[in-house]
Amino acid sequence: MQRLNYLRESPSQTAGPYVHIGCTPNFTGLDMYGGDLGVCMKTGPVQGTEITIKGTVFDGMGTPLRDAMIEIWQPDAAGLFPSLNETRGTPDPNFTGWGRSPGDMETGEFIFETVKPGAVPFPDGRMQAPHITAWIVARGINIGLHTRIYFEDEAEANATDPILTRIEHQNRIPTLLAKKQDDGTYRFDIHLQGSRETIFFDI
């Protein structure tokens, strides 16, 4: 009989500390691929309202993470995804719907130049409020964290959103809302722990 106990369990691996080198090498100073994937979501004139989203990932002590990386997925301004499976219409050909941003090495701030997403239907047909799906990885995070970016200025749509209305602790919904700033940009900070912990989704 072959003994099956001679192999030891491998130690778990975190998403870091080399997230930037592996996913955004040009950001770290390595000239590769002609540019980092996901940096530019607009490949030409886009439809809808162009917006900028800025934010920082904070740990439980309120310290900015300087090695976090954020990826986002979203529909275009008409609520259509750039996918071969999209059957509701023709998506904006100049919009990729996917972006990747490393946190600034000094401040930890991430930035996305994108468009305000349109509403998309929930599986049961109800319309969801405009939102962006976000994925967060960093040193010390074993499994990437998923959350959503909704918009504070979409109050009417947010009030009937199938996901937001299911959240048990309604007082935590503000952790999912991007807030419009005086300069026209949207601010969406992510808190990994603590009293302001962002809502994360198990998907």
TrEMBL record:
Q: What Enzyme Commission number(s) appear in the record?
A: 1.13.11.3
State the InterPro entries in the record. Answer: Intradiol_dOase_C (IPR000627), Intradiol_dOase_core (IPR015889), Intradiol_RC_Dioxygenase (IPR050770), Protocat_dOase_a (IPR012786)
User: Do you know which Pfam families this protein is assigned to?
Assistant: Dioxygenase_C (PF00775)
Enzyme class of the recorded protein, top EC level: oxidoreductase
Q: Which residues form a coiled coil?
A: none
Database matches in CDD domains = 3_4-PCD_alpha
Matching entries from SUPFAM superfamilies are given as:
Aromatic compound dioxygenase
- Gene3D superfamilies associated with the record: Aromatic compound dioxygenase
Q: Please list the residue ranges annotated as the Intradiol ring-cleavage dioxygenases domain.
A: 53-81
- Which first-to-last residue range defines the signal peptide? none
Q: Which UniProt keywords apply?
A: Dioxygenase, Oxidoreductase
Give one GO molecular function term: ferric iron binding
State the NCBIfam families in the record. Answer: protocat_alph
Which family does the similarity line name?
A: Belongs to the intradiol ring-cleavage dioxygenase family.
Protein name per the record: Protocatechuate 3,4-dioxygenase alpha subunit
Organism of origin is: Sulfitobacter undariae
